[in-house]
Amino acid sequence: MAFKKTHPWDQLAADLRTNETILAKIRAGLEKPVLNNQLDFAQGRNLKLVDLVAPAYGLTRWLGSASQLALHQGDTHGALRDLVIEARLPRLLAEDHLPISELVRIAIGATAKADTWEALQADRWTDEDLAALQRAWESQDFAAAMALASGSVGGTIMATDIGI
Predict the structure, then answer these.
(1) First to last CA, the chain
(2) How many domains does the chain have?
(3) Which has the closest alpha carbon to 20: 57, 53, 62, 81?
């Protein structure tokens, strides 16, 4: 039985090169301490969350793939950069204070955790690399954010608007 390749490295490298400019902008944007999506809760059910939530989750795939390719190419520094950014990615939705945003944050975190675990199987990590990954993960707080979102103005408006 022939097995299908799971990582077409050449194709992945080409895709990442094609999207390098936008990925560089995303990496730079995620270096900011706080991200505010400026949601207008007065719109109620007309609030366009899909435009924000779906792309946020999609970023985990790009960053995870970039880190895997970097490790495949022996570039631990490049892999670390993308893993740290991926671990910080849930911040993108942290200030929304909406239950759906928190659920997506948890999904992003789960994917980032799996990518981090897979990357940690490589044997080229230094103590400094591991400390950087630890700091990125220590800064996450999912439980408190979910509790806040459940009782937030945005969560209340959305629940009231859809009849909950």
Answers:
(1) 53
(2) 1
(3) 62
